[in-house]
Automatic annotation (TrEMBL):
Domain Toprim: from-to ranges: 261-343
Protein name: DNA primase
General function of this protein: RNA polymerase that catalyzes the synthesis of short RNA molecules used as primers for DNA polymerase during DNA replication.
Cofactor: how bound: Binds 1 zinc ion per monomer.
Necessary cofactors: Zn(2+)
Sequence similarity: Belongs to the DnaG primase family.
Gene Ontology CC entries for this record: cytoplasm; DNA-directed RNA polymerase complex; primosome complex
Organism: Pontivivens ytuae
Length: 638
């Protein structure tokens, strides 16, 4: 049984031949050029010491100059793993995250049909190219001259012209023996409900669209009539053309990007052509739609960090911001996006004409990381003058960052967002970059919380120690609860230092094991946090403070304990403030504070008995609160 050719095209586009071959060989670094996908190694198929085995990663083929072994990635897996063809395809598809299609007995017939359509498209390209030099194309040639496109550039991009005639291409192809239904199937003509098909492109400059291998798959056209319904028109979806899986100038840009190690993503045909004429040939463009997931994957196959170059108008900025939501779930370490928003009112062609290619290169060199646009999108034009609005911002950002699949990358995004948040809201200096933990005393010091609060310090230390131990054992859970951990009050200075160091580390790639994380934290702090935390018996026996514990259950327990801790501290805070207000002028304030303390007590007392003060401090505090309420201390006594 045969599989659809489109499946093999996608499989090869998603699979790096050099990455597969690297499992079997060691590259010769002197001869290899990874930037160009030009790799050399001793041949895995015969015994040799010299590097005569060549991999052309961009074309997807290998060849040995010693034993003449050759083929593509499927052949390589078949030969090295001793697999039959279909098993090799299934193995590669699984690695690429692709679903095997249902085996289609008509696949060969479809492949032949696609080849036929591609040839018809080539005939159309040649016809329209010839029309550009005809008498009817005078306005089109004048337009291209005004756009300062040289004859060499026009030839390089095979620009053509579709005369404003209803059936000129259709009749030409029919005269060459092409069936009417095939002309329609190629997307070159439209079949009305009745009557003869008519040309899709009329009165337009034509831009051939080719796939990564250089095969003509569709056409684009720019209208010469300013009153045309669509200024730019692409061919329809066909057996050849899926606009969400194609890029304009894909093949030439991929080749040019091998030298520059970069890729520019512009908005349309003319931007790409203007960039190429200015010496920036490593540019592509989507085809009349917003950038899709498939197009992003194609771009990342060309360059690790494509630069999205958009016009500096509202539409360009909106397009950049929409792309963020598409890209976030697809990001991987080393695979990202940068954004170059051009000055307002200018596209690449305008900028190059006004100030030269150097001005465009300067703009590209200042392209910004995606996290900057994400932050601007979520904060621009908004006011955060209340806790509720700030909390809404935090919730929205957490939801967005949760879409990032890789934990390390997600933590780096969280760190960058945290720095921007601190810059916006002010507050203490950002400890994530300048914090010097060794200034913290190693011995714990009691919080100055007043006579009625000091007996609670033992229970607070217990809870804070267990909270930190659970965070260290389950760093992914700590990352997800980072905002709650950051806001949580800590009464013990040394444990607060561990918390701050942990928050700092959450902004960096977390170490693979809790032991490695503890080692890094010890270096930051100047003392061993493991020993400090283990001194509390509850840490040693807590089942959720073990790395092997179920992460989901441990995260729920962590959140519950943090809320319990905040509840207990809330009692003391409100009682202390209420007692200060008893001086006499704020009766309503005292009433409100005691009410808040009562609510905090009720929440806290529903918590685990194991995490209350062993000496009854919290019960004593609760009893004191009850007496204050019973005595109606807010009522002035005569």
């Amino acid at each position: 049984m045969s599989l659809p050719p489109a499946f093999f095209d996608e499989l090869r586009s998603r699979t790096s031949l050099s990455a597969v071959v690297a499992r079997k060989v060691s590259w010769d670094n002197r001869k290899s050029n990874p930037g160009k996908g030009d790799m050399w190694a001793p041949c895995p198929f015969h015994q040799e010491k010299t590097a005569s085995f060549h991999v052309d990663d961009r074309k997807g083929f290998y060849y040995c100059f010693g034993c003449q072994a050759k083929g593509d990635v499927i052949r390589f897996v078949m030969e090295t793993e001793n697999m039959p063809f279909m098993e090799a395809v299934e193995t590669l598809a699984k690695e690429a995250g692709m679903q095997m299609p249902a085996r289609d007995p008509r696949a060969v017939e479809k492949a032949e049909a696609r080849a036929g359509l591609s040839e018809i498209m080539e005939m159309a390209v040649r016809f329209y190219r010839a029309q550009l030099s005809g008498a009817k194309a005078a306005d089109a040639r004048a337009y291209l001259e005004r756009r300062q496109l040289t004859p060499e550039t026009q030839s390089r991009f095979e620009l053509g012209f579709a005369p404003d005639s209803r059936t000129i291409l259709f009749e030409h192809l029919r005269g060459k023996g092409v069936a009417a239904e095939d002309i329609v199937a190629a997307g070159l003509a439209i079949q009305p409900d009745s009557g003869t098909p008519y040309d899709r492109f009329r009165g337009r400059i034509i831009f051939p669209i080719r796939d990564a291998r250089g095969r003509a798959i569709s056409l684009g056209g720019r209208a010469m009539d300013p009153n045309a319904r669509a200024k730019y028109l692409n061919g329809p979806e066909t057996e050849l053309f899926d606009k969400g899986r194609a890029l304009y100038n894909h093949g030439p840009a991929r080749e040019a990007a091998g030298k520059t190690q970069s890729l520019i993503v512009a908005e349309g045909y003319m931007d790409v052509i203007a960039l190429a004429q200015a010496g920036l040939g490593h540019a592509v463009a989507p085809l009349g739609t917003a950038i899709t997931e498939n197009q992003l994957q194609l771009m990342w196959r060309i360059a690790d960090e494509p630069v999205i170059a958009l016009d500096g108008d509202k539409a360009g900025i909106r397009a950049a911001r929409r792309l963020i939501d598409v890209a976030l779930p697809l990001l991987q370490p080393g695979k990202g996006l940068r954004f170059c928003i051009l000055p307002e009112g200018q596209d690449p062609d305008d900028l190059i004409k006004a100030d030269g290619a150097q001005a465009m290169e300067a703009q590209l060199s200042e392209a910004r990381p995606m996290v900057d646009l994400l932050w601007e999108r979520e904060t621009e034009g908004k006011t955060f003058d209340s806790p509720e609005r700030r909390a809404a911002l935090d919730a929205g950002l957490r939801k967005l960052l949760a879409a990032i699949a890789d934990p390390s990358l997600r933590s780096h995004y969280a760190a960058a967002i945290r720095e921007k948040r601190q810059a916006l809201f002010g507050g203490p200096p950002a400890q994530r970059s300048t914090w010097s933990p060794r200034t913290i005393a190693e011995a714990p010091t009691a919080g100055a919380r007043g006579s009625m609060l000091t007996s609670e310090d033992g229970a607070a230390r217990l809870r804070e120690s267990v909270i930190l131990a659970r965070c260290l054992a389950h760093p992914d859970a700590a990352i997800r609860r980072e905002s709650l951990l950051e806001r949580l009050p800590f009464t013990c200075n040394d444990l607060a230092a561990i918390r701050d160091a942990l928050l700092y580390r959450l902004g960096s790639p977390l170490h693979a094991t809790p032991d490695a994380a503890m080692e890094a934290l010890a270096e930051d702090l100047g003392f061993d946090p493991a020993a400090r935390l283990s001194a509390v018996p509850h840490v040693r026996i807590d089942p959720h403070s073990r790395a092997e514990a179920d992460t989901e259950v441990a995260e729920a327990a962590l959140v519950e304990l943090m809320e319990l801790h905040a509840g207990f501290l809330g009692i003391g805070d409100e009682v202390r403030d209420a007692e200060e207000d008893l001086g006499g002028t704020a009766d309503e304030g005292v009433t409100w504070r005691l009410k808040q303390a009562s609510l905090a007590r009720d929440r806290a007392m529903r918590g685990h008995r194991d995490f209350r003060a062993a000496d009854g401090g919290e019960q004593e505090l609760s009893d004191h609160l009850s007496r204050l309420i019973a005595d109606e201390v807010w009522i002035k006594k005569r």
